[in-house]
Every structure is written in structure tokens, then in C-alpha cells.
Amino acid sequence: MSLGRKKKGFQIIIRRIERSGVRRFWVPRWFVLISLLGVSILTGISLTGLDRYAEYEKLKSEIRNLNRELSMKHNQISFMTERMSQIREELAGVRALSRNIEVQLGRRAAPEEGGTGGPLKGIHRRDVREVAFLNSESELLDRMWTEIEEIELEIKLEHGKNASLYRFINSQSALIRSIPSIRPVQGGFISSPFGRRSDPFTGAIKMHTGIDIAHSNHVPVCATAEGIVVETKWSGSYGRMITIYHGFGLSTRYAHLHRIDVREGDWIDRGQTIGLLGNTGRSTHRHLHYEVRIEGRPVNPFYFLPDEETS
């Protein structure tokens, strides 16, 4: 195809190759200019449309990302709201436990009937409607995380307080279990008290470091508190004897036994039988010589006997 320009237009010449012949077309100049202008306009419109479409797709992608991020934040808010509710309940439970322990220990008066209401200390409860007044969800999340950390810290402090209370209770309980507070022999009578007395063999005034409980039979002898057997032996004056260490410097001694039923190193519970009452060693009659010692020094066992014995 070739173009031949005329005076006021354009001549288009078309020559066929397969057969001879030429065709000529005249196109006015204004038509060509209008056509070129139309093509330019269509091209511009197409390019603008492509740009608009690309921008539209970009906005769609950003909206999807924003919706995804918004959904994640909503999930985080829901999770933290639920978590805050849980730790509030946990803190209330821990505080109630602390109060009960202190009441049992006499450190705090029992609460009045009807419960104790009011907000938790240091915790500002929020209405969900407050969300509308926050600058952004990120601010809400930050504030919720801060509140969760504060409550969890308070729970940790309460747990530490309870641990101290439990240690105190355990130590007090161990002390109570270590006090020789029951009678070592059922029945019988106290034939010789604690203190200075006339020696039954020599008549000399000597210190009697325990009490003698007389009985007509070889009745069982029991440990008056829990502890560990530290001594089982024959002693010239005590005869067959057992010493039990109870902790906190407390120990008890059982002498003149007819038989020993425990061994050194055995752990003994309060009330457990350790032997039989007898008349061995330096003894004038069948009885149990019973001692209580604090840091190795004998004290009057009479003060440790049940109320019915001391009344």
C-alpha cells in the first residue's frame, strides 16, 4: 500500500499482486484529521480507564487488607475482654482465699453477711460504649493490655501472699503435731510427780526429771506426738528406754519398758504404740517413767497432759 498526497486530501492506491489492476481512493484532509483526533481521544480514554482500573484494584486490595486487620483487632479485643473477665474472677478468688486464711488465723475479722461488693482495687472497669470515645482501636488494645498486666501482677502478689500464709500455717501445723499432748498410757495413776523428791533407794533428795505412771499390767505405751525415734537402748537406771525427737527442740523419753516395739530411725505418729509398760532398770514397781525435754532440758510433763489430767 502506498499513499499519494493531493492538493486538498489524500489518495490511497491499492495494487493487487495476484492480478493486474490498481484501485485509487481519495480521502479528504479533514476526514483524516478527524480520524486521527478520534484515535487519539480513544487511546487517551483507554489509558485513563486502565489507570482507573489499576487504582480501583489497588483500593480493593487495601480495603481487603484493612478489613482483615480490623477483623484481627476485633478478635484481639474479644480475646482480651474474655481474658480480663477470667483474671478478674481469678483475682477475686485468690483474694477470697487470702481473706479466709487470715480469718482462720485470726489476722482479720470475718466479713459481714451479704458479701463485700465494690470494684477491685486498682482496676477501672469500662463500659463497652467507651470504645466510641477512643481515638483508635490500637489505643483500646494498648489500654486493655496495660490493664491485663496490672491485674496479672496483682494476682502474682496475692499468690505470693498466700504462699507465705501457707508456709506459716504449715509451720504452725508442724509445731502443733510436735507438741506431746496426749497421755502415754491409758489408765493407771501418777505415782511420782516431776520435781525434787526422796530417792526410793537411798532416801537422798534428788531431782525427778519426769513423771511416773503406775499400772498393774504391761499395757501399751504410745508416742505422745509424732516424730522420729532417735534412741532405743538399755540404760542402767532407765532400763529399756526410747527417746523420740519431735522437732522444734522437743523430745520425749519413755523408760522402764517391758518391751520395745520400734527401732531407731522409725517415724512415729501420735498415738502409735512403741512398747509395753514394765519394771526394768532401777525401778521399785511396774510403771512408765515419762519425760518431756526442750533443747535437752527436762520440763514438767504435767503441763502437756490433756485438760482432764491437769484439772
Structure write-up:
40% of the residues lie in helices and 27% in strands. By secondary structure, the protein is α+β, with helices and mostly antiparallel strands. It folds into 2 domains: 1-111 and 129-178, no CATH class; 189-310, Glucose Permease (Domain IIA). The strands form 3 sheets. Strands 4, 7, 8, 9, 10, 11, 12, 13, 14 and 15 form a 10-stranded antiparallel sheet that branches. The longest helix is centred in the first third of the chain and has 77 residues, at 29-105. The protein is rod-shaped, with a radius of gyration of 51 Å. Mean pLDDT is 78; it is low at 1-6 and 113-134.
Write the SSE topology:
Layout: E1 2-5, E2 9-15, E3 22-28, H1 29-105, H2 137-178, E4 189-192, E5 195-198, E6 205-208, E7 211-214, E8 220-222, E9 227-235, E10 239-247, E11 250-260, E12 267-268, E13 273-277, E14 287-294, E15 297-299, H3 307-310
Antiparallel strand pairs: 1-2, 2-3, 4-7, 5-6, 7-14, 8-13, 9-10, 9-12, 10-11, 11-13, 11-14, 14-15
